[in-house]
Design brief:
Elements: H1 12-15, E1 21-26, E2 45-52, E3 55-65, H2 71-74, E4 75-81, E5 89-92, H3 93-96, E6 107-108, E7 112-116, E8 121-126, E9 130-132, E10 135-142, E11 156-163, E12 174-182, E13 194-200, E14 203-214, E15 225-229, E16 238-239, H4 243-246, E17 257-258, E18 262-267, E19 274-281, E20 287-289, E21 292-297, E22 308-317, H5 330-333, H6 340-356, H7 363-377, H8 380-388
Parallel strand pairs: 5-12
Antiparallel strand pairs: 1-11, 2-10, 3-8, 3-9, 3-11, 4-5, 4-10, 6-7, 7-8, 12-22, 13-21, 14-19, 14-20, 14-22, 15-16, 15-21, 17-18, 18-19
Length: about 400
């Protein structure tokens, strides 16, 4: 039977009946008040989402207001599908939403967006479809010393999802995300590349966040990506020509950019020293594998730079997945912070407490919140200058 032209419409899913039912798990106030957030105490784990039966998460949102900058690394996001004993997602909260080094950068891309609030708050959104057949569970473990969310002790969240009466198709893969860290690399000879992902199974890689602390200084990006498919030996089927090419940049990017599928959204210094963050979504060109995938990148040409690397890889695969490497302890996960950070943090939060004393007038509070834009971006000198200027 000949298919109707509407079957080829690019937005067909918007006007076709699917039989799915939309739902949401969120932090709304069950008492009927307006405390539409939860408090995650130190050393505890909060359940954000739990559902039995077939479904698919379509959108995941989180927000903090006046948080500790380190909250974005102290909170660990985990996702379990279909009752599995080990998580398919295990990533620090900020890194999952592409916050490289726990520094805020506004981002509008196809899979992740970071949207502004009032300066000291930002909306974190992810749009990876996350299907499950028997059930799903999403949790946040907080490893900080104070409640998650800093001064307001608050986490707002939405988990939007669909439920289905019919079981999932047999070929529906499960979403995975894994955080890795290597610090620091050793700048000698033909040493192993930084390994960003090592997967056993069948599936496809759909995203990569790469974070570099360029302690060595100078242009670090001559390192090629080398992607080994299904256990192949060198040379791999996918061999790159430099780090900037992975993320769609021209030679040696010196200013930040962010697009639908790739960007260098964090470049701390135009001379390449310090913190770097870049992302690539393989939405239109997923990296497909049938038995295994190993993704690596050189740290400089022939591994000649000693730097610190962290990454998040995002992929889909058939279960079961191989066990993840254990996450480092809290101190090892701490984002890079310069000596001036403690002074800027103390001054910023002191100004916040003083502004609270003037409520219900919000003028001072909004002024301090606006200064949060520089604090959460990691511009600590600017934060102090703006606070001193009054």
């Amino acid at each position: 039977m000949e298919r109707h032209p509407l079957h080829h419409h690019p937005l067909r899913s918007l006007f076709s009946h699917t039989g799915a039912r939309s739902c949401r798990s969120s932090s709304w106030d069950r008492t009927g008040g307006n405390r539409d957030f939860i408090t995650v105490e130190p050393g505890t784990t909060a359940v954000l989402f739990e559902h039995e039966g077939p479904g698919c998460i379509t959108h995941f949102y989180c927000a903090l207001a006046f948080p500790e900058l380190t909250d974005y690394r102290d909170a660990i996001l985990r996702c379990h599908w279909d009752g599995e004993p080990t998580p398919s997602v295990e990533v620090p909260l900020g890194d999952f939403f592409a916050l490289a080094h726990a520094r805020i950068r506004l981002l509008q891309s196809s899979m992740v967006t970071v949207n502004p609030g009032f300066g000291a708050s930002h909306g974190l959104n992810a749009y990876f479809p996350m299907p499950f057949s028997a059930g799903a569970r999403i949790t946040i473990e907080h490893r900080g010393d104070q409640p998650l969310g800093g001064l307001l002790r608050a986490l707002w969240f939405h988990v939007d999802y669909e439920t289905y009466e019919a079981p999932l198709p047999a070929d529906a893969l499960r979403f995975h995300a894994q955080w890795r860290q290597e610090k620091s690399t050793v700048a000698v000879g033909p040493l192993p590349n930084v390994q960003l992902l090592d997967v056993v199974g069948a599936g496809q890689m759909v995203g990569l966040l790469l974070e570099i602390n360029n302690v060595a200084g100078g242009w670090y990006g001559e390192g090629d990506d080398m992607v080994f498919i299904d256990g192949e030996r060198w040379p791999p089927a996918i061999h790159g020509t430099g780090t900037e090419e992975i993320f769609g940049g021209g030679a040696c990017p010196a200013r930040e950019y962010a697009g639908p599928d790739h960007g260098f959204h964090l470049i701390e210094s135009p001379d390449y020293a310090g913190l770097v963050g870049a992302y690539r979504w393989f939405v239109n060109d997923p990296i497909r594998f049938t038995r295994a995938l190993r993704w690596t990148v050189e740290h400089g040409h022939a591994n000649n730079f000693a730097n610190e690397y962290a990454s998040v890889a995002y992929w889909y695969q058939a279960e079961p997945h191989a066990p993840f490497p254990a996450l480092p302890e809290r101190d090892a996960l701490r984002p890079p912070l310069p000596p001036i950070y403690d002074e800027a943090r103390t001054a910023f939060f002191t100004a916040f407490f003083e502004a609270l004393k003037e409520l219900p007038s919000q003028a001072s509070l909004l002024r301090v919140a606006a200064i949060g834009e520089s604090f959460y971006a990691g511009r600590f000198d600017e934060t102090l200058q703006r606070l001193r200027a009054g």
